């Protein structure tokens, strides 16, 4: 591997200097790398507080605090895979449905280029077109860290495409196998219980925060791993799964969430699965005066990157 | 006039107490009042930083600082007209075009109810459907305070309805008479000069901030009054016309704007015109950490209210 | 039950639209409902940083994020009881003692109207006049979640009425039975140990945060339930009981508090007690730049509401 | 003069180091100096947003940015007078009337000690007890820079002592000669016109912001100087006289105010008058996220200090 | 000219998307362009509040709001010159003197590459090494917009290189011709008058803010143009020259500054001079909660860019 | 013991009044007290985000919320030892190496005066010169609470003195006995594993956060106590050891840290050791909009003070 796909050396170029690419990586095309980090600055699916359109830029900014070698494994993802910042998907801010098509096409391209995508959103609706782009060989497994199920049917005059509905659509469209779908960390009052009934009816495993606390992270993740098995699986991480004290800058914060410590442990326990891509969504910088949410998001992205690098290492680099 | 349509007495009910209606007024239907204050929490027309959907609520909050009697005229608008908070227009956050129809229908209803509407936005696209609701008897005059002309043709794959285009559409649709249309305070670099060329070609009078500064407020407003004459005229006030030091919380701030002092003087010089309604748009609370923008917006709304109260007084109250 | 006492449907009216009443409920009189949600915008009892006078308004704002059905019980409080926003108590900002009388009279009225009050404060002194209004049939039990005991005798030239003294006064006045009084979560250095000595001497059970952590929430709450028994009990929740990372916007923050997760669990374990009212106090918006404190407060109010709805259901609705 | 009463040398002790006394001056007793800078951390007279109790501390913090030599005159006040930080007046946060007595007694002591007081507030009610302490030889002249007249009679159940009433009380008590009283910069809607009527009826000269703008600072200040003449005069500067873009952190901001440039020029034009003391009030740090208000306040205090130093120089130092 | 050196089209790629380069321009080497925009993230010369090391990144962020065509001239700088973002100078955060050498060498390289540099700082000390890099053919003229003269000799144990001294050093080193050096907007108290005495003694023309206000921008700029004449001249713009209401985020704010309107007019009046480079310094994002300072800075950089593009046009593009 | 070394009585002097000394203590010389609280406003060792130069001032501000008697022990440190605010060490903001010498000399003086120092920083490099001043009798033990090991060798052109290197230098210089050195709470990716290898190679015990969580605070602290034994030991507490939700205002935040509850428990478990001094470093107020970080820091300083008071009590007061 050339040295090209390395973060800038923070002992030579200060972290406050230079363009804030993801992880201070070079900019490249997906076809040049094993793992493509992308931004999807889209928030047209937001029911209440918008602002995740600014998420990718602030995730990049805060990712300039990231370093190279994971302190638990002692491994650097950059030694295990070629990784680059592959830029933002250029959505259309006035056309939700057209934007979904743009995103889907973009991720189909990433898949064809042979790179695993790691995405910084954007609201949670973006996971639907990402899955449309990636799940070309049949339904995939899905591990979702989140405060909300996002399996409502519709809102507002039967709007079926918004950040409360992506996973119902994904099941309906055959993108996700509901039997291989687990949702972790859900909580908070709901408008009505219909979304939970739908998900459970389809076979989705819902693990409320109360169950997570009672059983502990290791036990829950063992179950999650068993549910998705060793077949292709996508990972979606909604920042609002984390407690709002650690991630206040999001559109629909819900108190009583899991901690970043738990989040990091859960992501690390994904290691070894056949992950085909991952995203970190719902960072809304206008509601994040201290920048902590974007920092949390960028660090979770680094943890996801380490997991993806393991996949690359097992499957072989370019 | 009954005492009902009065702000809460701040010497009896502290300003920090009670529901924050506009100007601490009672809630009522347009048919009960001479002047209906409304909110339009809509920002689907925003090209860059969203957030004006939260504008009406924060304008209401800050309007709890408003008082009753104008210090220059010594008059209270509440002695001259019945005024109430007539609530928000319930838009559809996932359907821009449907929302425009909802707004247009709502303002047609306000017009039919016989009330003059004073609106807190919302992005500037809302003025288009407001005009559709009000300009039922032919094109109206328009006085626009703004940093931008908002007469572009389209953006993003020919999107023709966004907050950069409302006044081109309003001219095309025959809602505004371009010969009775004046734009005051424009400035800032432009994507291309086509919007100015279009507006001028139609007869719109554009007064850049430089001309405003050179000639002074009184001279400019005398010209503006002459342009619209004594026929029905709408007034639209984009908060970004004001300098961002006094109104930072807006989506496309532009330095070098007019001051609130100039703004207040300009609005006062509207007195005597046949104003059929007015709006204050583009307050984006997520970008307004000190709340100053909403305070400025609420105070401009009070000045507009005083002008509208004069119209009511001349034409006769209910 | 009519449908009237329902929150606005967030799938029809966006959460950012409309007047921010508590939980997006209709405004009504206590006599119309089973549970009256009220605000007491009072901070004259504050020893250091004021600002809780703005608490009710921001609690209402953030409560627009609340939903209907509790995810653990699957129950909606609005199906079990009629609930409304019954407005703010109009205190006198220049007369502490007169304000206490106003509050006491107001809550006596709520009690006579037959509604259970759920209050958003305000500083903690307001619980004293609330108890004066409610404890008409003899001393009540009290469960207090808090960082501080609030049982000092006096400060500043023998001021006996401030937010450090309400529960000493409540015991002295026979409003609270000290044997049925438990304080949970106390911590932090104290000016002197006299307040603890007084409380313990009267029979109050003090559970420091260290004990809570060591024994766990369930064990502690079992004891608390035993202490108050099945007789009338009031619940007071000082937001500073919660760790300041989750509730920074308060006048006397104290690090090392219980988490929102623990708080939610503790409130849920109140279910089945004979609760006659509850309050959530000490939210100080000027010290809450991200709004998280008011969000936390509003969610705890929702949890308290669910408990109160259970009381109504057991005792019978109107 | 000894070197003792000098600010710390910022070329030796960095501005960020050391205790933030006013102007980085030593702490001393009024009897040791010619000019005593004091804080009055009092906001019990506030009708709406409290927080000026924190004003003195933040004024001190920002005053660490001040330097020594006035750039226009080339003079240092510290060469002309002995100046020190004489600490805060210890008010009683639960007893408004007692606090007024404490303040009055404190300033009587300053006067007896032979020092000219320069005060950082605190809400505007503090000027009343300051005048009680200073105006021992009969009514004094008064120059007031402000957005509001503060000559209301009462609020809230006939509360006669709050920050809307101090100057009516001061006239009634014979502390101020209304014929030698000028108010500059007033503006904004009023609850009712009674306060202006009262003031004018007593002979107070009110100069609205509109008149100030029309005539210019020099002309207005010439009139102000003529009104107070060469007899003892007090100067009170409410930070809300300045435009809220330059001083957002205050309880009752009013757009359209005078600029800091105008404020500085006006204060400089006080030079030569027989000033017996001055204050800068209504800085409310909780509403000042950028710290600009306290910086503005501290700089105006420096300008007032230079004027007071001229008085000392003319009358002779200790 | 190829289309390559154009900002991203904001009607195709939303302003919130993509890497935030200066003006959304492509990244290139100085040798490829006529005008090189660079960042110098350096604040080791700061006497009080650090943070300008983060200036270039936030200037880039806010510059994504800039557009193409100047509204007064109707000209686009991108039609007149090739312009690119040429990245940051990589300074050494632990070695002030070495960093100065790095910067000087870097700008010597830009000069040799034939590009005019436009710089976003960084504290004001960076102008010294920039001049060392550019003034290879003898002393240049200098127009400085600033609140401070920055001509002190030393601070803190004879530190001769900090942001209070660059222009004394530049004169001593023969980089600037003091007879062709004008400072505009100076104000604020000074530690001692020695810096003004030095500057004036060398022939530097100091124009205080008071003189600027009295004479007006046009008259002052005519004098400034005459002072530097038609020989090579550098322009340095310290953001603290602008009033802190419009640029609060800076290390040593000074109230009473010139407005952005005046600033824009002054920069436009540089047109036609032989400008060899320009900088905008002292933007400190940690003290800029609303982002207004960086927006102001980015807009002034656009105005400077337009002036530089005129120089290129007159001298001939590559 | 005289009453002199007591905090101001918050029941007589409100917490918002008076100069904000550490813990509201009197100012004194180290020779007058048993425990000297000092500030070191130094951030020249910072690799990325500066701002800890403002740490001491904000720690003092927030320490005005501290009280006297520890709620667990029932003891007041002020009954056990004479304690005062001994001011700031006056560093040189332009000379890192000279500042280190100033600090070392200052702490040698504190040691000679016979006081135990408790320090509020400043970046973590300050611990190196503090140890130089204190470890005059041979290497001391060290307990470090931190997210980072700070045992790198150098950065940026072989800079060996910055906040990533102090403990490597301290070992090399014989100030710390690496066999009696334990680091608790470390986590986060690293630039390279060399620093851990070095530390472990020297015998330093590194306890990652994962181990701390797995074993619990009591077990880990028992080990830490055994490691340092009953010989002289210094304690250094980097605020970034605590989770950034509870301490966001720091230069290199790292998610997943220990909680304040854990931090308090760990510090309390230091009781009985032979502590010769302690510091709390890396509080960066410009990145702390809510002030929570400084509050957390001040409270940890109070806990450390209680431990130091125990040392004094055992060894005998002056």
Short description:
Chain A is of the alpha/beta class.
Which short descriptors sum up this protein?
homohexamer, 318 residues, alpha/beta, Arginase, Chain A, 8-stranded parallel sheet, globular
Overview of this protein structure:
The structure is a homohexamer of 318-residue chains. Chain A is an alpha/beta fold. Chain A has one domain (3-315): Arginase, Chain A (3-Layer(aba) Sandwich), CATH 3.40.800. In chain A, 34% of the residues lie in helices and 16% in strands. Chain A is built from ten helices and eight strands. The first copy, chain A, has an eight-stranded parallel β-sheet with strand order 2-1-3-8-7-4-5-6, with helices on both faces. In chain A, strand 5 (176-186), helix 6 and strand 6 form a beta-alpha-beta unit. In chain A, helix 7 crosses helix 8 and helix 9 packs parallel to helix 10. The longest helix of chain A is centred in the last third of the chain and has 24 residues, at 292-315. The first copy, chain A, is globular. The N and C termini of chain A lie close together (9 Å). Chains in contact: A-B, A-C, A-E, A-F, B-C, B-D, B-E, C-D, C-F, D-E, D-F, E-F.
Order of helices and strands of chain A: EHHEHEHEHEHEHHEHEH
β-strand percent of chain A reads 15-25%
What's the CATH superfamily of chain A, by name? Ureohydrolase domain
- Biggest sheet architecture of chain A: 8 strands, parallel
The protein's oligomeric status is homohexamer
Number of structural units classed as domains of chain A? 1
Averaged pLDDT of chain A:
96
Biggest sheet: strand arrangement of chain A = 2-1-3-8-7-4-5-6
Number of helices of chain A: 10
Ranges of chain A with pLDDT <50 over ≥5 residues?
A: none
Report how far apart the termini of chain A are.
Answer: 9 Å
In which range does the helix fraction of chain A lie? 25-40%
Largest interface: A-F, 32 and 35 residues
Level-1 CATH class name of chain A: Alpha Beta
Briefly note the CATH topology name of chain A.
Arginase, Chain A
Proper CATH architecture of chain A: 3-Layer(aba) Sandwich
Shape annotation of chain A: globular
Round the Cα radius of gyration of chain A to an integer and report it. 18 Å
